[in-house]
Amino acid sequence: MSGGPPKGLPSTGPHSLLDMPHPLAGSSSEEAVGGDSTPSPDLLMARSFGDKDLILPNGGTPAGTSSPASSSSLLNRLQLDDDIDGETRDLFVTVDDPKKHVCTMETYITYRITTKSTRVEFDLPEYSVRRRYQDFDWLRNKLEESQPTHLIPPLPEKFVVKGVVDRFSEEFVETRRKALDKFLKRITDHPVLSFNEHFNVFLTAKDLNAYKRQGMALLSRVGESVKHVTGGYKLRSRPLEFAAIGDYLDTFALKLGTIDRIAQRIIKEEIEYLVELREYGPVYSTWSALEGELAEPLEGVSACIGNCSTALEELTDDMTEDFLPVLREYILYSDSMKSVLKKRDQVQAEYEAKLEAVALRKEDRPKVPADVEKCQDRMECFNADLKADMERWQSNKRQDFRQLLMGMADKNIQYYEKCLMAWESIIPLLQEKPEAK
Amino acid sequence: MEQAPPDLERQWQPAPLEPLGHTDAGLQAAVGEEAEGSRDEVPGDGTEHALGLGVLMTENNFGLKKIEISVSEAEKRTGRNAMNMQETYTAYLIETRSVEHTDGQSVLTDSLWRRYSEFELLRNYLLVYYPHIVVPPLPEKRAEFVWHKLSADNMDPDFVERRRIGLENFLLRVASHPILCRDKIFYLFLTQEGNWKETVNETGFQLKADSRLKALNATFRVKNPDKRFTELKHYSDELQSVISHLLRVRARVADRLYGVYKVHGNYGRVFSEWSAIEKEMGDGLQSAGHHMDVYASSIDDILEDEEHYADQLKEYLFYAEALRAVCRKHELMQYDLEMAAQDLASKKQQCEELATGTVRTFSLKGMTTKLFGQETPEQREARIKVLEEQINEGEQQLKSKNLEGREFVKNAWADIERFKEQKNHDLKEALISYAVMQISMCKKGIQVWTNAKECFSKM
């Protein structure tokens, strides 16, 4: 088991810094590199999780890359139950089975994380561990620290206002579970992040807390170099493509925020409509009690309105549980992406500053010193990683929103179909002739 | 045109043997002829209702002829009122057409303008002269049960339009009523523009009207009203209460539904703005946004249609009042009868006492006799004679009152049965049309969201 730096692979920045393989990881991190500096076309067209309609262009093996890790990671996008090319997917992660734990100090929920993998980094083919939200939070922080050049997926919101939201209600827990599942799947699909040792430990360790404590010691060694990257340099100008990404993210987050507000407002109006409907229906019942021949028709109308009310309630519940959280997730995502962009700026700034300093020192002119070269390296790797991740993110975003908005349309269609059925079914009742006198 | 004064006998005419013009199935708001101008933009004006026909006395007062009535236009007018102050009001054009049996073609026979107050006058007249009939109600005087987008202003064109339809409906109800259609004043209302008000007032119907106080008194003191009328009164109270409640909540429901649809319009704009920064997703977003705009604007027509349903309910809300009026009349007559019987009984007793010399009842004469001495036998005879005359008169009156009362009950109940059939039919039709409206709304919703989903799928 090597403890030295990985050799002969296109560097991806921090990989060279983090040369400490984790005790639990099977083999060294040499094979763990899946991310190319230049994204292959297949990366862009690869399937995203959840979408079963796109066809992979060439059955899945990207041309030009022989490393098994990268080809498998590309196809990791496929869902657990989507078995197109089972053999090329080698890591499956699922979050399910929430359970409530009541202890003296606190009450909390844990989720079962099931991992199935044929990767050598995993000792066993299958793992099942329980984790709570703060474990996920820890994982995300670790990933941000150890992979600062990559876009880390967002977690669902940490804090919930007590009293307003019941954090132990079925709906809340289910919404959170889905978001946590999405989080892990996004990491699983990432060619670099999925090989991260913290991720591996998260999925496999029996006692995560012990590892967490140990990790604090590691941090002090790694921290230096990480801190080194984020020195206080001022960037003169962002290169065009990154400026464009920055602008895009700004507008994107803005528009999502507006959509979130609109969706919330719609739900609010629908709930108020529901309140009135629940008073409206029963009045027909009251009237029905006064009448003879009209009693059945009026009662029928009352029941019909009741059914529509139920359908409306289902719609508002669905939108609250499935639509709003995903929107919010993407807003968080774009926020974290903007800070990664800023970090990239820092790296570039540092390089440019060093370069300038060298240019002023006449004696070193023909040869560029090693540390400046290192800086340049760092910057170029960062840029490459970021560009690759951005493209992957754009593609995933497109699929996610396609699915989200189609889902919204679907829910509304189902609502109207339920109401239609209710009203159509009482027409014959209303048209019934009384027995001839 | 003869001006036969409407006399009391006419109200006792039994209903004609053959159904006049059409059955209760036709007793609905009719569109009548399509007229130019204000009619064309009316949405949901009940075109699904059968073309209502009425009947009217022919000019020579023999038989009945088929007619079509329509309130085809409404016009704002200014004039001077009774106190010579300038006022603005709306006048309505009433057109009457006679329908030829052979080819179904109609010929315009009369056309005149009337304002709302004249309709009220007509109805008040009918209430007095046909107290045993459930007299059709007028559309509301002021807009009530409005949801926020509707105006409560009487001059508002939408209100005027709905009132026009309501007035037409009123005239058709009267014209298709087996008894009311024969009324001369009603005939003149449709045919004689000038001087009609004077003619109505000359009947002196206002004097014949029962005072409110008298009616109230009777309601409290009557001892033996017909049970059916008591039940009916109870029913009409409940009906009024439940329909009011229904209309109030429906207005709130309409308000909320409006809000839901309109907020979706915001999606249109934001999708458009978002599509500007997207490459592949742009087109799908943009076109989906357009569908959201369509969705948001579709609610206006939907709710306008629903107003028609509300108007149908309102008619029966006001009908409840007409039902109560008939019950009140019965109570009044019954009370009158009871008082007359009581009075007769007391007089008989007085007479008996005088004849036998016993004084069981208190009377002023008895008192004065005691104070001032016995009266002479001649005086006593005279008094007995007077009383006997009064008793005779009283018995005659009681007999005729009894007869009147029974006739009233019989005829009123016949009309109430007719009304019940009409009500059941009309309200069923109203519920069906409401269900149809809802179905249409659901189908539109499915269409729009399916289109939007299609656009999203192309993102």
Main attributes?
heterodimer; A: 437 residues; mainly alpha; PX Domain; Substrate Binding Domain Of Dnak, Chain:A, Domain 2; 2 domains; three-stranded antiparallel sheet; 3 strands; B: 459 residues; alpha+beta; four-stranded antiparallel sheet; 10% strand; elongated; disordered N terminus; membrane (chain B); acetylation (chain B)
Walk me through what this model shows:
The complex is a heterodimer of chains A (437) and B (459). Chain A has two domains: 89-211, 2-Layer Sandwich (PX Domain); 237-432, Substrate Binding Domain Of Dnak, Chain:A, Domain 2, CATH 1.20.1270.60. Chain A is 59% helix and 7% strand. Chain A is built from ten helices and three strands, in the order αααβββααααααα. Chain A has a three-stranded antiparallel β-sheet with strand order 1-2-3. In chain A, strand 2 (107-117) and strand 3 (126-132) form a beta hairpin. In chain A, helix 4 packs parallel to helix 7 and helix 8 packs antiparallel against helix 9. Chain A is elongated and about 110 Å long. Chain B is of the alpha+beta class and 459 residues long. Chain B has one domain (6-338, 400-457). Chain B is built from ten helices and four strands. In chain B, strands 1-2-3-4 form a four-stranded antiparallel β-sheet. The longest helix of chain B has 81 residues, at 377-457. The radius of gyration of chain B is 31 Å and the shape is elongated. The N and C termini of chain B lie far apart (77 Å). Chains A and B meet through helix 8, helix 9 and helix 10 of A and helix 7 and helix 10 of B.
